[in-house]
């Protein structure tokens, strides 16, 4: 597919399928704060991720896959809407809830006859009305197209999710006390009090498997968003024993990732046991780069890339990602074309043969991934934009990738520098080209401001009625 075709992807053309086929089941798996280098398929020979490695080997490995923001909440909204977070007003964690006017993959799926399920960390609105607090935005998954819901609002310990880990010194309760009241999960609006101990990834998957089994003869869409390896990072003893030569923090970090990997393997096996793996697309990515603390301590890894969560550098937004669709995606596929979380909705819309009404002119920022995966596209055809904003702290990070060039405004409190990099020759972002290529910097700055202005119009009501 040519760049002109990709550039022409619009609301009216999202559902125009080149050839008719049965729409597949789609599952979006996402980890939390897992760095690009924290999986075996990206070269980590210490962390055990055999199931993710098999998934990548059996399908496509995205070598350059980007989160829409270097932190969780904004990225999560982008996965469901195909739009930059600045369009729907979630500029950082806990700074907004998903707006009713946004159209999500789940809402599209329901219109196309899919069963829909959400499982895990939501974090784009509170899931308990009474927990809103001073900056709460009650906007649960069932308000956005999901019928079956097992969710928390935000982070929980990765082992015993209702209990604050011993030795925990950061935000939240003291060690041994209940975590967020002790019952952070809700199931279809009701607080959950059973089967919420032990490995949190297993707790989530225990709800995913019945949903898959119940809908095996139908079409279904599921978002499975693990908390792992977001802090508080804790692993069960059986997983910590897999890393006898590691220190305690590494045992917990590596162990909880391996525990999550086991549950992904459990899901893959279930699809095969049910005989529906060839009609199910399984996507995996992280929501942003590794956490600041874990990265600075050398425990979490952004691979060869600079930065971590909360930074606009590659390490903050470049994440591990792969997809598997047996019989459709050729095993051993890999692509260096830049892809992103905003691409999930256009991809699903094409697969499900869905098109928006002609009078719905809202911008969709992603592209259909299937031409890239199947080798029919040799470039993305669209620029990529990233943002993270907390103006009361002086944080206003933004970045744009256009071709191989990246312009970024550092996301640092009190403001930061503007830098220009050529990612083709300098993927590690070591050589700032601002002084050497002022015209290119000015060109990208204009593009960045144009996107930011477009996002502001969307945010202020241009795309739908408030």
UniProtKB/TrEMBL annotation:
Keyword Ligase attributed: no
Presence of keyword Repressor: no
Keyword annotations of the record: Hydrolase
Domain Sulfatase N-terminal: 24-353
Record family assignment: Belongs to the sulfatase family.
Annotated protein name in UniProt: Sulfatase-like hydrolase/transferase
Organism whose genome encodes this protein: Haloferula chungangensis
